[in-house]
Specification:
1148 residues, alpha+beta, 39% helix
């Protein structure tokens, strides 16, 4: 026995001849097979047929030998070692030629436990699996051209082979013979139809091919429908009647069971044993056959064939009479072999063509013989044809995967480099013909596997499939750690353990079912479906072009792969994992294309960026993989405790892109290709990932979202570098940055570092606010307000922001600390912190004043003003008054110019001719901007002094401070005299020193100093009108001072006063006071007004007296009416003398 050839199902053949994107690939089964028992023989031997069943491999050769191999498990997982078990020489009488040479067919009948071997036109039977002669080796059949005809509707053998045996069809030169193989071989019937070279059967209906044409045959009723010729180049010739009759079905008279012996002589074996033909009388009748008896009339046909299309024997005879020389298609000189297959339960596929080296066509016919579907085109006429998958019903019954895609595999001649070479043509049969043509693929056969004459090549569908371990797809899908920096060859124990676990997980995807065998010369290979992961990954790999100088990516090819799987739903776990992996790898390649474009300092097109963004969203690749390729964002990647684990295909691609770009120098300017190509795309993708926070489906979510937030902040800071200073505008980068910070980030320490590195202190304060770190917020704002560099310039009203923020927090210590700091910096604003009634922390007035005196003395005055003017706290008026007076006196002492200005102001005001404004208005309108603080303090001083309560104010102390400056502070001196009740002096200063006549009149009307120089009195009591007597006495004093004025002011002011306010003067007193030389014209208005007043007063008194009289009369009348209405009453005394009396009152 020759040594067994070795083969590993996990090792592919010469990959140069295979297309990795093809639906199928070749895996070795056996190679260097010793086909000839004599290695030194000159005759070239090749394989003619192959069959595999239950771990047994049967190989037929052109030398008429049958090699039997059995498999044993190898050392490696999934490895099979094949050893030869036997080399048989099936019996035959004559060596045949061409297609019939050697072992032509091996038909395995598992349920019958038999195998049918057709060798050199002789059919013999053996037992399974060791191939011992069956039936004692006595049953042979010579002159056999083909054997098969198993019912394809019963692929699992659920009916045939259970007790009754398996029905097969053998094709003899003159007839078809149906036999049942079980414990015995029994003939069912003969059908007189000769020259059949191929047959496929479903139930009672068979599609057969003779030497020239195809037809449908009802094997029970022997009804036949002619279809079309095998060769479209056949010639039409006249054949004699005898030949024509052999191609027609027999008449009803010939329907009986035949008992004749086969026309061919039985094969003689060694010794003098007698062989029995399958047609012998010994077992000619099968009484247990479930097949129905043939109908007595040809009108009763099989339901599978339409009665209108049945060609009955009677019609055949009629046709022979009318046309004694019928036209019959005769094959061409170089015949092409018919190919019949049944890809589904209702269809047969038949091939037709002209020559073996010219294109062929496959046509589908249904069970009625009608052509359905489209056609299948073959590059050349197929030498052998196999269908795989696509039959939904069969897939459901057999529970097989991938059967939803139907493929036709044909052995054809394919042009390669200008030479026609054998190849396996692969195309879909269950789709539109145009789509099938676009998806064609070829498997090239290695030159070493071809014979010298190109013989011994073919495809065969094995009886049973085998499970192979294909590591290519599992290696691609298994997870491996992505290292961010180059590492040595050694891996940690934890990583090694994790690798083993991932290998075990991915090994589930390495198992594939193989049932198609390709034999060529001296080797046998499995034709295995390429997993969808391998095919799509190979297409993506073809999009990468690598060289020593550069790496390029064909983005269009990558997009085509994405479009091919877009909208597809995964039907199993492998497809789910595959689609996820392919989408992620495609998105990585598209991003890599942008990365390479950026390296070349080119701005990518909008369509490229848009499709890349869409691919990233669809694939949802771990953003850390993308960030690891971009500098300086790679520093933001957090690996986590176990590192970054990703499919090996993604990791290898990332390494390729990193190697291609790490040595290149590129600008990291955000306004160039770097920002436009990479940062914008990454920004949108990272925002998409932020929306996934809280989803349990994100693996290693802590490290992932820390990376996402840190990288997103880094990108936004880079993009925002060139934005104008100031607050964010709508839909701007700065607005996005603020939104990210306000919603919170998981990378808090890194975010703090980034904001400090980019000098974005205001953003840092927002970050602290998102974490409710109040002390850090206030500290950062304090730094900004004190002049620390804030690159964004977003804090426009920082002091106001701090004041509002302090009113919202509850920490009293922080409010005190930063409130006093703000008050010291901006007293007017800072005191609002302590005066805010709606603040979370409230201070009493005493505590606030004490704090301000201690830590912000400059703000005490502002706070006292708030208390006095806003809250009307009179108890703080004296203290505030002291502040103002001290400030005013200090200003006078410090500025001689101010004194001169005041003197000039008084002189100017006195020189003004009436009508003129009050001195208060004049002073405000003519104050110098250089003395604005003095003006404000003096105005407030006058307001407070005018509204002061003489009982509470320290008037002597005020007088002692004012007296040295009485000539400069005239209004203040006037108010002080008014407070002490010295009205005469106050009016004298108003009229003679100041010359403010209107203010003097106002003082007389209100009889209060509150209205002297203050537009709004602080004391609400001053709003009560004074008694008339007080007003009259003050006006009398004012008249006396007016009468002492120099002329002509004396006459003008006195007459005007008498005319306007004559009601406050007594006529006699005025006449006595004025000089006798006053003209009536000056006193006329006063006298007229006074006399009219007296007359009017007398009339009012008379009218009032009459009104009281009328009222008294009315009351008397009403009293009388009431008495009359009540009437008189009677009072009776019912008591006795000396005793209490009871008085009863009753109406009369």
């Amino acid at each position: 026995m020759s040594p067994p050839p070795s083969a590993s199902p996990t090792t592919a053949l010469n990959t140069r001849t295979q297309d990795p994107t093809a639906p199928y690939t070749l895996y070795p089964l056996l190679s260097s097979i010793p086909l000839s028992a004599d290695p030194d023989a000159d005759t070239e031997v090749h394989i003619t047929t192959v069959e595999h069943w239950n771990g047994n491999l049967y190989i037929g050769t052109s030398a008429g030998e049958l090699l039997h191999y059995v498999s044993i498990p190898g050392d490696a997982p999934g490895e099979l070692i094949w050893i030869i078990a036997s080399r048989l020489h099936p019996p035959y009488s004559t060596v045949q030629e061409a297609e019939d040479e050697g072992v032509k067919q091996i038909l395995v009948l598992p349920h019958a436990g038999k195998a049918c071997i057709l060798c050199n036109a002789t059919l013999s039977f053996y037992t399974l699996p060791e191939l011992s002669p069956a039936f004692g080796g006595k049953i042979k059949q010579a002159g056999c051209t083909w054997v098969g005809g198993l019912d394809l509707n019963d692929a699992e053998g659920e009916q045939q082979g259970k007790g009754s045996g398996t029905v097969i069809v053998i094709c003899l030169r003159q007839r078809l013979r149906l036999i049942r193989i079980g414990d015995e071989a029994r003939k069912i019937r003969d059908i007189e139809l000769g020259g059949v070279r191929a047959l496929a059967r479903r139930g009672n209906l068979a599609c057969v091919a003779d030497g020239s044409s195809y037809s449908l045959l009802d094997v029970v009723n022997e009804a036949k429908i002619d279809l079309f010729p095998i060769s479209s180049d056949s010639e039409v010739k006249q054949l004699p009647e005898r030949t024509r009759a052999s191609l027609e079905l027999p008449t009803s008279a010939q329907h009986g069971h035949s008992r004749s012996v086969s026309g061919s002589s039985p094969v003689r074996l060694g010794r003098h044993e007698r062989n029995v033909s399958l047609g012998a009388e010994l077992k000619s009748k099968d009484s247990s056959s479930p097949w129905p008896a043939r109908t007595s009339s040809q009108t009763k046909t099989s339901p599978a064939i339409s009665p209108a299309r049945v060609q009955s024997p009677a019609k055949a005879e009629t046709k022979a009479v009318t046309s004694p020389e019928p036209l019959v298609e005769v094959p061409a000189a170089r015949p092409i072999l018919p190919q019949i297959a049944s890809p589904s339960g209702t269809e047969f596929l038949l091939t037709t063509g002209t020559k073996a080296d010219e294109p062929g066509v496959g046509m589908f016919v249904n069970l009625d013989g009608d052509v359905v579907r489209g056609t299948i085109e073959f590059t050349t006429y197929p030498r052998s044809l196999v269908f795989d998958g696509g039959d939904t019903e069969a897939a459901e019954s057999m529970k097989t995967e991938d059967s939803h895609e139907g493929y036709a595999l044909a052995m054809v001649q394919h042009r390669l480099d200008g030479t026609m070479v054998p190849a396996v043509e692969i195309q879909r049969w269950d789709v539109d013909p145009s789509e099938a043509h676009q998806s064609k693929a070829w498997l090239q056969i290695d030159d070493a596997a071809l014979g010298s004459a190109g013989e011994g090549i073919g495809l065969r569908k094995a009886k049973t499939s085998v499970e192979l371990t294909v590591s290519r797809s599992s290696n691609t899908l298994r997870a491996r750690r992505l290292h961010l920096s180059p590492v040595g060859n050694s891996a940690t124990d934890a990583e090694t353990k994790r690798n083993s676990e991932e290998d075990g997980f991915a090994s589930r995807f390495a198992h594939v079912q193989a049932s198609i065998i390709l034999f060529s010369a001296v080797q046998v290979q499995w034709v295995v479906r390429n997993s969808i992961a391998s095919r799509l990954d190979a297409r993506l790999l073809q999009a990468i072009t690598s060289s020593a100088e550069r790496v390029s990516i064909d983005a269009k090819m990558v997009r085509r792969v994405l479009n091919d799987i877009r909208g597809q739903d995964a039907r199993n776990e492998l497809e789910f994992v595959t689609f996820t992996y392919i989408r992620q790898k495609a998105s990585l390649l598209l991003f890599g294309s942008l990365l390479l474009t950026t390296v070349s300092d080119t701005i990518a097109s909008e369509s490229d960026k848009r499709t890349t963004n869409e691919a990233l969203m669809e694939g949802e690749i771990d953003p850390r993989i993308l960030l690891s390729l971009v500098q300086p964002l790679s520093v933001e990647v957090q690996e986590g405790a176990e590192g970054i684990w990703t499919p090996q295909g993604l990791r290898d691609t990332a390494y390729t892109l990193r190697q291609a770009t790490e040595s290149e120098t590129r600008s990291e300017e955000s306004r160039g290709p770097y920002g436009d190509n990479l940062l914008q795309v990454l920004k949108r993708y990272l925002l998409h990932w932020r929306a996934k926070k809280g989803f349990g489906s994100v693996a290693d979510e802590v490290a992932v979202f820390q990376t996402v937030d840190a990288a997103l902040l880094h990108i936004l800071l880079l993009l925002d570098q060139h934005s104008p200073r100031g607050p964010a505008t709508a839909n701007s980068i700065r607005a996005e940055l603020n939104d990210v910070v306000d919603k919170g980030v998981d990378c808090f320490p890194r975010a703090v570092q980034l904001f400090r590195n980019f000098h974005r202190l205001h953003l840092l304060s927002r970050l602290y606010q998102s974490r409710k770190l109040t002390p850090q917020v206030l500290e950062t704002w304090q730094q900004i307000l004190e002049g620390a560099h804030d690159a964004g310039g977003e804090m426009i009203e920082g002091e106001q922001d701090m004041r509002r923020y302090l009113s919202k927090i509850r920490d009293r210590e922080l409010v005190t600390k930063y409130g006093t700091w703000l008050a010291q910096r901006n007293p007017k604003l800072g005191v609002q912190v302590f005066a805010d009634e709606h603040g979370r922390v409230k201070f009493s007035h005493q505590d606030a004043v004490a704090l301000l005196r201690e830590k912000a003395p400059s703000a005490v005055k502002e706070y006292l003003e708030y208390l006095v003017f806003a809250r009307h706290k009179a108890e703080y008026s004296s203290e505030l008054l002291s502040y103002y007076l001290t400030a005013v006196l200090a200003a006078l002492e410090a500025s001689p110019d101010l004194k001169e200005t005041l003197h000039d102001g008084y002189e100017t005001y006195r020189a003004l001719e009436p009508p003129k404004p009050t001195y208060t208005q004049f002073f405000a309108d003519n104050s110098s901007p250089d003395h604005s603080e003095f003006t404000s303090n003096r105005t407030r001083l006058l307001q407070l002094l005018s509204s002061a309560d003489p009982a509470d104010a320290d008037l002597p102390s005020l007088r002692s401070k004012l007296d040295p400056h009485a000539d400069l502070l005239v209004p203040e001196t006037i108010v002080l005299h008014a407070l002490t009740g010295d009205h005469d002096t106050a009016l004298e200063l108003l009229t003679h020193t100041l010359g403010d006549y209107d203010t003097a009149i106002s003082y007389c009307l209100h009889a209060s100093p509150a209205f002297l120089f203050s537009p709004r009195p602080l004391n609400s009591a001053a709003l009560t009108p004074p008694p008339h007597s007080n007003q009259s006495s003050l006006f009398t004093l004012l008249l006396q001072h007016f009468l002492t004025l120099p002329l002509p002011a004396r006459l003008d002011r006195s007459s005007e006063l008498l005319e306007r306010f004559g009601g406050f003067f007594e006529l006699e007193a005025v006449l006595e006071a004025v000089d006798g030389d006053w003209s009536v014209r000056l006193l006329g208005p006063f006298l007229v007004g006074t006399l009219r007043g007296l007359v009017s007063e007398g009339r009012e008194v008379g009218l009032e007296r009459q009104l009281w009289g009328a009222r008294e009369l009315r009351v008397s009348f009403e009293a009388g009416e009431k008495i009359r209405e009540v009437g008189p009453v009677v009072v009776r005394d019912e008591g006795q003398d000396g005793e209490d009396r009871m008085v009863e009152v009753e109406a009369a």
